[in-house]
Write a structure and sequence with these properties.
Strand order of the largest sheet: 1-2
Distance between the termini: 31 Å
Shape: globular
Number of domains: 1
Radius of gyration: 21 Å
Order of helices and strands: HEEHHHHHHHHHHHHHHHHH
Number of strands: 2
Largest sheet: 2 strands, antiparallel
Oligomer: single chain
Length: 371
């Protein structure tokens, strides 16, 4: 089995081994489950499932504080280089703080009382991405029979698509702040009075999804109540923000700086999403091991991945094996598995060197496909 895994999925020093990109989807569907790996994953990580509230709260609040402090300096400073430096700090801080939406989706809320509320109050609503837009969406990406299919809201076969899809994928994220403002300030209130519009808003404009064919179902019970509360808060905030700008209470320049920083956060996240998977599945259900091999780990010793893939996202492939393990424990899990699993284990074939090599691999795949 190791030989079958090596050709389509191994990267060495940023180079891609094997050029048959089109055939990879077919080979991926033939990958059986590595039972030894899956057994080791379960046995070696049993003690890592509990989130540490001190780590969660301190990391999240410090990241948000740094992000908002940078935003304030970028708005108030009259010196261009200071504004640029502060904006960069703000982007990185808010990007890391925003990454906790992923943890909110997976964590047991009883283990972290108040964290969902804290996230939405500090980041989710102010940045127009309340957690209901990810909760109930992201878990479908982890469903055994949905991953990589047209029912997966977070998957597109990008490696098998045309070259123009990659720049479009990134450029679209630039418009995210404007689209979210319009959704919350205009569409959401109007949809309360127009049932047909409400159906469209719920199905197509209420989830952080990249699959345009995906349609969201209405939430029920507690999830529905959380949705309404968060959506209402986001609508009030959006209307207040736009009213402040149109009345002159909020200077236009300050508003544009805010939009630029939020848009930059969205672009950075979109780039990270671009390399979270190899995107080589053509729509068929895969084995758990195949799903793992279609995903990406960028483990240490590289340091940059902690910036562009924060809050455990550098271990995205491992996360697909351990979705309930909190972000701060994934590094420990990776070390244990790397040390214990045999050299021919599938686990060693999902590790990559960095962002540049992954982007090159994906771009080359689309160019071959489009030729």
């Amino acid at each position: 089995m190791s030989e079958m895994l090596l050709t389509p999925h191994t990267q060495v020093d940023g180079a891609v081994l094997g050029g048959d990109f089109v055939g990879r989807a077919a080979r991926l569907k033939q990958v059986p489950d590595d039972k030894a790996m899956l057994r080791a994953v379960a046995e070696l990580t049993r003690d890592l499932a509990a989130p540490n509230p001190r780590i969660f709260w301190s990391d999240f609040l410090v990241s948000a504080l740094v992000g908002y402090a940078g935003l304030a300096v970028a708005i108030m400073s009259g010196t261009l280089w200071v504004q640029c430096a502060a904006a960069l700090v703000s982007i990185l801080g808010l990007y890391r703080a925003g990454g906790f939406i992923h943890e909110v989706t997976h964590v047991k809320h009883s283990a972290l009382p108040g964290f969902r509320f804290g996230f939405n109050a500090v980041i989710g609503v102010p940045l127009l991405v309340p957690s209901y837009m990810y909760e109930g969406i992201h878990n479908l990406h982890h469903a055994r029979t949905r991953y990589g299919t047209d029912q997966d809201p977070e998957y597109l076969p990008l490696a098998l698509m045309k070259p123009w899809t990659l720049p479009v994928f990134i450029i679209v994220s630039l418009l995210a702040p404007i689209a979210l403002l319009f959704r919350n300030a205009v569409l959401a209130p109007l949809s309360l009075f127009i049932p047909a519009l409400r159906k469209v808003v719920v199905e197509r404009y209420s989830g952080l999804a990249i699959n345009p064919a995906f349609r969201r179902r209405p939430a029920e019970g507690d999830a529905h109540r959380n949705w309404i509360v968060q959506e209402t808060a986001a609508s009030i905030w959006s209307i207040a923000l736009l009213t402040g700008v149109f009345t002159g209470f909020i200077p236009l320049q300050s508003f544009l700086i805010f939009l630029a920083i939020v848009a930059s956060v969205a672009v950075l996240n979109q780039v990270r999403t671009l390399v979270a998977h190899l995107w080589e599945n053509d729509g068929e259900p895969l084995s758990v091991t195949a799903q793992f091999l279609d995903s990406v780990n960028v483990p240490p010793p590289g340091l940059l991945a902690e910036i562009w893939a924060p809050v455990g996202l550098r271990y995205h492939a491992l996360h697909h094996l351990l979705p309930s393990v909190p972000y701060h424990a994934l590094g420990t899990a990776h070390k244990r598995l790397t040390a214990q699993l045999a050299p021919d284990s599938a686990y060693h074939h999902a590790n990559y060197d960095g962002l540049a090599g992954l982007v090159y691999r994906l771009a080359r795949s689309t160019l071959v496909r489009g030729a």
